[in-house]
């Protein structure tokens, strides 16, 4: 099945006599009719496989072990975090599958037709940030490949804006590669994911087999005991789970962007179950086992796959391995970052932007984030994750409370595209949702501002989700409409 390009599909009007506000509607935001949804569970599973396999997730195990967890405890954290993510995404995906609408349209039901821009812009900012960071991971791989094939490549070492000229050249190639994919149509990505997701698993399995041979077993990292006990273990475990959720907190919000293409609720549930928690539980031990072998070979752990390829010093391995990293990064970026960011930008300017124009805008904005500076400070990325999960937790809580409790899974879809419908709120602003979002977000990130409340950082996503969900129901229940 191909990945359907919204603007290239035949659109059926919701009703022949319906009129929509052009500031809320265009072909890319329109509902996808059930007979035009082509995805089955295999598509959903392979897309998640392609997204879970990326350098940031690979290196997340390093962050957990640096906190003092044993390898098995890392797997326990991953299992708990991804189980929670699966349940959240399974529920939040239902509206997309039932009505064929993206996140930026669905969120209007609670935040109002104008107020929806607040969570949409927040989500768009996060998507572009993650696109930028992931694309820079591919930049490192391209740089390693070119430096291996052509040694003179590394001679272009003059620094410009904190990065060498040869790295700038690699970055330009990666950005052009993303642009080439988007220019040829997003509809091809579905077929691409069917190959990319399983291929990365196969390559990872080969790397794991090599590591088991080098380490004559699981290696030293699996024999390293935990240094955390008692209450310190509990708080660190909670923080580890929250950090893992933070990596995907953005997608827990905009999962309807994908589920709108799926044929049935059964397909989206099975596909996510296979592609999300199951794949993560396979991929994480692969990362730990492979890194464990580097301790024996080089005397210290090497968690960055590109650094490992360079350390091995085998040209064929560097080129082939770098190509797989680029493939995996392209896979996660197009579906998890560029696509949601495009919808969010279109929602802001539906009269001006379409899917292709917004994709090029994402590429331009991605450079402005200067991702090479983030990679030099790994702790900064985890700090951003805490803040992001704290702010997007409230959005998730409001969405779940609104759709399942307040609306009982019933939406008047046509009114989501009009300012004068039941979802307008107060002059376009859903006051209960906005109040709940602000207060829930403040509670979630308060630990970053007030040292006495720092313990809340360990459960920021849960605090934001719970506080905002309950508060929203309390404020919106008296004025509820279906």
Automatic annotation (TrEMBL):
PANTHER family: NCS1 FAMILY PURINE/PYRIMIDINE TRANSPORTER, PURINE-URACIL PERMEASE NCS1
Segments passing through the bilayer: 74-93, 128-153, 165-182, 194-212, 232-253, 274-299, 319-346, 358-375, 381-406, 427-453, 459-477
Name recorded for this polypeptide: Putative allantoin permease
Lipid bilayer topology: Multi-pass membrane protein
Organism expressing this protein natively: Swaminathania salitolerans
Cellular location(s): Membrane
One Gene Ontology molecular-function label: nucleobase transmembrane transporter activity
Similarity comment: Belongs to the purine-cytosine permease (2.A.39) family.
GO CC annotations on file: plasma membrane
């Amino acid at each position: 099945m191909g990945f359907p390009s919204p603007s290239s599909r035949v659109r059926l009007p919701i009703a022949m006599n319906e009129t929509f506000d052009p500031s809320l509607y265009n072909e890319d935001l329109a509902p996808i009719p059930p007979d035009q949804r082509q995805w089955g569970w295999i598509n959903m599973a392979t897309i998640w496989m392609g997204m879970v396999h990326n350098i940031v997730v690979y290196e997340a195990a390093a962050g957990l072990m640096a906190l003092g967890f044993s390898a098995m405890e890392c797997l326990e954290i991953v299992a708990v975090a991804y189980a929670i993510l699966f349940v959240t995404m399974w529920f939040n995906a239902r509206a997309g599958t039932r009505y064929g609408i993206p996140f930026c349209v669905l969120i209007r039901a609670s935040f109002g037709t104008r107020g929806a821009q607040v969570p949409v812009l927040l989500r768009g900012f996060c998507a572009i940030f993650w696109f930028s960071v992931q694309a820079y991971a591919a930049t490192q791989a391209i740089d390693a490949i070119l430096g291996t094939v052509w040694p003179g490549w590394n001679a272009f070492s003059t620094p410009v804006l904190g990065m060498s000229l040869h790295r700038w050249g690699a970055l330009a190639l990666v950005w052009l590669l993303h642009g080439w994919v988007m220019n040829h149509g997003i509809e091809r990505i579905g077929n691409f994911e069917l190959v990319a997701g399983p291929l990365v698993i196969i390559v990872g399995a080969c790397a794991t087999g090599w590591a088991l041979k080098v380490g004559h077993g699981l290696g030293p990292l699996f024999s390293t005991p935990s240094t955390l006990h008692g209450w310190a273990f509990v708080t660190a475990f909670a923080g580890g789970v929250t950090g893992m959720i933070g990596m995907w907190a953005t997608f827990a919000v905009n999962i309807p962007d994908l589920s709108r293409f799926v044929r049935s609720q059964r397909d989206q549930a099975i596909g996510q179950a296979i592609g999300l928690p199951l794949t993560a539980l396979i991929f994480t031990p692969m990362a730990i086992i492979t890194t464990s072998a580097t301790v024996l070979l080089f005397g210290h752990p090497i968690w960055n796959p590109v650094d490992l390829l360079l350390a091995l010093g085998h040209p064929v391995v560097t080129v082939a391995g770098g190509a797989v990293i680029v493939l995996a990064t392209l896979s996660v970026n197009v579906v998890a970052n560029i696509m949601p960011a495009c919808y969010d930008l279109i929602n802001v300017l539906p009269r001006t932007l379409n899917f292709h124009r917004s994709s090029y805008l994402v590429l331009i904005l991605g450079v402005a984030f200067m991702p090479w500076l983030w990679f030099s400070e790994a702790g900064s990325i985890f700090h951003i994750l805490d803040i992001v999960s704290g702010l997007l937790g409230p959005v998730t809580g409001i969405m779940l409370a609104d759709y399942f409790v307040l609306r009982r899974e019933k939406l008047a879809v046509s009114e989501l595209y009009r300012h004068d419908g039941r979802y307008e709120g107060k002059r376009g602003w859903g006051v209960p949702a906005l109040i709940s979002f602000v207060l829930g977000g403040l509670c979630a990130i308060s630990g970053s501002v007030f040292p006495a409340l720092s313990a809340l950082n360990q459960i920021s996503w849960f605090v934001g989700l719970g506080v905002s969900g309950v508060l929203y129901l309390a404020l919106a229940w008296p004025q509820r409409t279906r």
